[in-house]
Amino acid sequence: MMTYKHIQKLDAKTDLIILCSKGNLNTLKTFVSVEKIDFEGAFSESQLYYGSNGNRIYALGLGEPKDAVKIDDAFRKLCFNQKKYWKGTIQILADDLTIDQVKKAVVGLEMATYEIGQFKSKKEDQKNLNISFSSPNTISNALKEGKLIGETINRIKALVDAPANLKTPEFLGKWAEDSAKTNNYKCAVLHKKELEMQKFDAVIAVGQGSVNPPVVIVTEYLPKKGGKVDIGLVGKGITFDTGGLSIKSSTNLHYMKSDMGGAAVVLGVVELVAKLKLNINIVGVVASAENAVDSNSYRPGDVINSYSGKTIEIIDTDAEGRLVLADGLSYMIKKFKPAQVIDLATLTGSVVQTLGYSAAGMFTNNKKMAQKMSDIGFDVNERVWQLPLFADFEDDLHSDIADLRNFSGKPIGGAITAAKFLEAFMESHKNWMHLDIAGVSFGDSAYSKMKGASGYGVQLITNYIKSLI
Ligand code: BES
Ligand code: ZN
Ligand code: ZN
Hints:
Number of helices: 13
Strand order of the largest sheet: 7-8-10-9-13-17-14-15
Radius of gyration: 24 Å
Helix content: 25-40%
Strand content: 15-25%
Distance between the termini: 32 Å
Bound molecules: ligand BES, zinc ion
Number of strands: 19
């Protein structure tokens, strides 16, 4: 557990972190009296000195102005690597940090406490540390907010990293119900029977091959009077994606436990918005199923119905995310009529081919939303990059026997055709955005040996929502 405090004066006997921009070691030199300082202040570089009282004095490099967007990572790395030596209180000389940078620092420190080894029989002891920021600014709100953001990101990462035998659709529903109770918002879980009654046929088709029944999770945080929904978030919650009968190869198949990364962002953002008590009406819908192989699985060639009433010819059962999202989006529009809709999904391998691990694919016809999301993405270092929704791709979704098909069958433009498929269920909503987060939600990290959840999206979407207030 970390607690964060604002202090006015440093204590000379306590461990201290001194922040240095590249080439500017003036502050450091007032604390450390060494002739030659082996440290330049490059981003995330750190160096340990000992003060005359035997206390640790870390120099932490913040690099150049352009590095400021990822300042959280400098704190995260130092804390992750050094916290085993820390006891009691660590001070941070944060006089030159803006309020926003203090918040980011706290997010990074909090993220350093994330324990990926949740399922080890022997867990590391969590220790209690006080982090004291010395600053002339009014930072106590930034400290509180940073902690809430960091905590929420860690909870979301734990969810994405959890194995699929534990993390069933029902488990996600229970997670949301617990979060709603703790943080004072509404949550309803639509179970299998209810889904059948309400004709969530696409969700049901995707989930019918699994012993773990599908659910749709509906969360509502509506603090503003009148009940008009400002923003609706929809997330893909595939708890495990085998590909279904169009089965995936076994290489890296275990990582398909992370195919609910979009759902995790939706759950995390609603929780965080409620924790921060933001004055905005938000609804989150998660469409969750396990895409399994079974004699009861839906098949390539099947024609299924959907919540919207549109019929879909299944070409590939591995294109399941767009099916559950179609129902989630239709339900969102019909039931809540939100002013804006954003969906998030680990939707395609194609977006990973296109943008790698560097940005989410952003699809929207709304220039204002695109510009805002793009700017915020750079600010929080959770980038998005726009890809087109050209009408040229519509033919790729033509079906002779149904209203549309779920896959073009061609190895080109996969992220775009997936987005075009979703668009067909949006009823020409003017303020809709789809984010394909397949490349950024889960991957390699400096903090684990295997791939893991990144926490991508929580800050991006929360800051976007804040910009609407
Ligand atoms: N869950 C996958 C997409 C994915 C791939 C996420 C890699 C994370 C990492 C999705 O359901 C899928 O299988 N998409 C197929 C669609 C194709 C069959 C039309 C893909 O992108 O190959
Ligand atoms: Zn799939
Ligand atoms: Zn999938």
